[in-house]
Each structure stands twice: as structure tokens, then as C-alpha cells.
Design a protein that fits this description.
Rossmann fold, globular, about 350 residues, 11 helices, binds uridine-5'-diphosphate-4-deoxy-4-fluoro-alpha-D-galactose, alpha/beta
């Protein structure tokens, strides 16, 4: 009998996937990764720069395959090669604006990709799954902090968010139809930050619209001013409120979810992964300025279409059942993000990064 458990990670070369693999390897899981590189840059000879750096950080090897989830035969082939105990499914298209412009592309990738994966898992009698969901399934929440019992699927303003909701529904249905399934869906709030080594971080392939990369681009002078969308929300200072969570906390949340899956059969469970703290855009800007000693000029503009005003988590269920809480502060998130940016001005295309195993 094999002693080490094997985790199959889809989308492992991406931002959250790569950070999660660091924690999985640290927890002594054997890791098999597929990625089609849609969301990851720094690809060289079919290899992922992010995963190479994960191997440097951990001193461990990853089994990697360049496979698209829409290619079911290739997916099947990987399952034939490895005895997989559990799947963590990150792979998805995730650009909100793009999803509104190309809905079919998003439905095809995010829904058919999930279907293929579930079918191949069933063929191989692998019924343990952690799914990467999002607080976007709550739409504009009726109250904050938002618990897992809040209604989902209402007022979701973009197709990306709807695909997360539809997949959650699919998972509920299969777990009802066959009780062998043991599934955890993790609803992420706003992931930011980077590994403290500065070796891995977020390197978007598409023009970004998220706040943290924008703040840092303004700080280093690549963009003249930060546009803050909306100064008239009913919040502490009029700007939008979110629950920013350090990507390493998120990564640990997946390891906690796996431990629970292997310990307890619950069919399907959903957990919020957030800090439970609401932070306004202006508070985030101030924290970034304090940590980096940089100035971030900003202007307040109209609200951004489709934005919600306030979203932050009640994360008590994850604490109670997963034994997990976020430990990193807003300052850690800013400092680690900034280190990654400074060390990698061209993201994963940056050469001459000193790699060692001391992290
Ligand atoms: N914001 C600005 N200026 C910018 C960018 C963002 O003021 O240039 C504001 C937004 O209005 C919002 C906050 O910063 O108040 C956070 O915006 P992000 O774009 O960073 O994040 P969102 O909360 O809009 O969206 C994120 C992910 C989505 C996910 C959603 C809910 O990007 O993928 O959280 O999970 F669907």
C-alpha cells in the first residue's frame, strides 16, 4: 500500500494553485499538476516558471502535464498514470470583463472542463474533491459578514461568477445522486499577496483590473494615478469594502480541507475562506503606503459597473470544522505583494532571480 497520498491539482501553474502546491508539498503530499497555461505566463519549453520556483522553494518534485481539461482523453491518460487520491480543482477562466464579452468561452471552459473532470474522476473511482469557488456566488449580500447559509445565485453580475455558482449546483446534484462523493467547495474572498520568499506571486496574462496590482503600478510610477471606483458607498469612508486574504492563508485552507476530506465523509460542504475583516479601498491604499513608504496618488471616480459595495466573510465555520483561520495581516499582504513585484518587475519573465531552498 502506498503511504503518501497523491493530490491531482488542476490549474496548478496559476496564482492560487502554485501557492497551494507549496503547502501541499510541505504537508508531504505527492502532487500531480495539469495546466493549459491560459492564466500563467513565464512558460519555457512547455514548463512552467512558477512550478519550477515552487520546486526550488520546497526542494521537492512535481509531476507536471500540459493538459487542457477540454481534452478528456489527455486527462484520462494522466489518471491512468497516477493513483490519484484527491483532486483540487483550480483551473478556470477568471477575468470578469472578458467573461461578459465571451460568455460561451467561459461556459465551455469552466463548465465542460468541470464535467470532464468529474467523469474522469468517476471512471477512476476517485470521489474526493476540493473546488475553488468564490464569494461572488453571494451576489450583493443582504448582510455582512456573510455566512455560508446566505442565498447564492442571485444578482451575480458577471458570467465568471455564474460559472462558479453553476458548478456549485452541479456538485450538490452529484453528491445527492451518489453518496460516495466527498466534496468541499471553498468560497474565496479577495486573494492578494505572494509567497514571502518573493519567488512566486501573481503574474496575470490579461490586462488586470484588480486593485492590488493597480496600487503597486501607481506606486512605482508605471501609472500616474489610482482611480478609486466610487466614493459614495455606505461604508466607513465611502469606498468599496472587501475581505482581502493573504494567498498563503488561502493555500493553508486547502491543506486543512484535504485533511478533513480524508478524515470525515460529509458528501458536500462549503466553507468561506476570508479573514472576517472588511477593508475599504482607502484603508488598503493607506496600509500599502505605510508598509512600502511609497505614495499612491488617487482620484475618486464613478462606481464601476457590476461592483458590489460591501463583501466580507463570516469565517467561523472554517475555524470550527477545518481548524483554519487566516493569520496574515493586511500589512503582510502588502509587504509580500510588494516584495514579489520588486524582485520580479517582469513577473516570471524576470531573469537572474536567485533561487535557493532556504524558504
Ligand atoms: N477598485 C478600485 N480601483 C481599481 C480596481 C478596483 O477602486 O482600479 C476597487 C473596486 O471597486 C472594489 C475593490 O477595489 O471596491 C476590489 O476590486 P477588485 O477588482 O480587486 O476585486 P473584486 O472584489 O471586484 O473582484 C474579485 C475578483 C473576482 C471575484 C470577486 C468576488 O477579482 O474574480 O472578487 O470573489 F469574482
Amino acid at each position: 500500500m502506498k503511504m503518501t497520498r497523491t493530490v491531482f491539482v488542476t490549474g496548478g501553474a496559476g496564482y492560487i494553485g502554485s501557492h497551494c502546491i507549496v503547502e501541499l508539498l510541505k504537508a508531504d503530499y505527492d502532487v500531480v499538476v495539469i495546466d493549459n497555461f491560459t492564466n500563467s505566463v513565464g512558460v519555457c519549453d512547455g514548463e512552467s516558471a512558477a512550478l519550477k520556483r515552487v520546486e526550488e522553494i520546497t526542494g521537492k518534485k512535481i509531476h507536471f502535464y500540459k493538459v487542457d481539461l477540454l481534452d478528456k482523453d489527455a486527462l484520462y491518460g494522466v489518471f491512468q498514470k497516477h493513483q490519484i487520491d484527491c483532486v483540487i480543482h483550480f483551473a478556470a477562466m477568471k477575468a470578469v470583463d472578458e467573461s461578459i464579452e465571451y460568455p460561451l468561452l467561459y461556459y465551455k471552459n469552466n463548465l465542460i472542463g468541470m464535467l470532464n473532470l468529474l467523469e474522469v474522476m468517476t471512471d477512476h473511482k476517485c470521489y474526493q474533491l476540493v473546488f475553488s469557488s468564490s464569494c461572488t456566488v453571494y451576489g450583493e449580500p443582504e448582510e455582512c459578514p456573510v455566512t455560508e447559509n446566505h442565498a447564492t445565485g442571485r444578482n451575480i453580475t458577471n458570467v465568471y461568477g455564474k460559472t462558479k455558482y453553476f458548478v456549485e449546483e452541479m456538485l450538490q446534484d452529484i453528491s445527492y445522486s451518489d453518496e460516495k462523493w466527498n466534496i468541499i467547495a471553498l468560497r474565496y474572498f479577495n486573494p492578494v499577496g505572494a509567497h514571502p520568499s518573493g519567488l512566486i506571486g501573481e503574474d496575470p496574462t490579461k490586462p488586470f483590473s484588480n486593485i492590488m496590482p493597480f496600487i503597486s503600478q501607481v506606486a512605482i510610477g508605471n501609472k500616474p494615478v489610482l482611480t478609486i471606483f466610487g466614493g459614495d458607498y455606505d461604508t466607513v469612508d465611502g469606498t468599496g469594502v472587501r475581505d482581502y486574504i493573504h494567498v498563503m492563508d488561502l493555500a493553508r485552507g486547502h491543506v486543512a480541507a484535504l485533511s478533513l476530506l480524508f478524515k470525515k465523509h460529509q458528501k458536500i460542504k462549503v466553507y468561506n475562506l476570508g479573514t472576517g475583516r472588511g477593508v475599504s479601498v482607502l484603508q488598503l491604499v493607506k496600509a500599502f503606503e505605510k508598509v512600502t513608504n511609497m505614495t499612491v496618488p488617487y482620484q475618486i471616480a464613478e462606481r464601476r459597473e457590476g461592483d458590489i459595495s460591501i463583501m466580507y466573510a463570516n469565517a467561523e465555520l472554517a475555524e470550527k470544522e477545518l481548524g483554519w483561520t487566516a493569520v496574515h495581516s493586511l500589512e503582510d499582504m502588502c509587504a509580500d505583494f510588494w516584495r514579489w513585484q520588486k524582485m520580479n518587475p517582469q513577473g516570471y519573465r524576470t531573469k537572474d532571480i536567485k533561487l535557493n531552498n532556504s524558504h
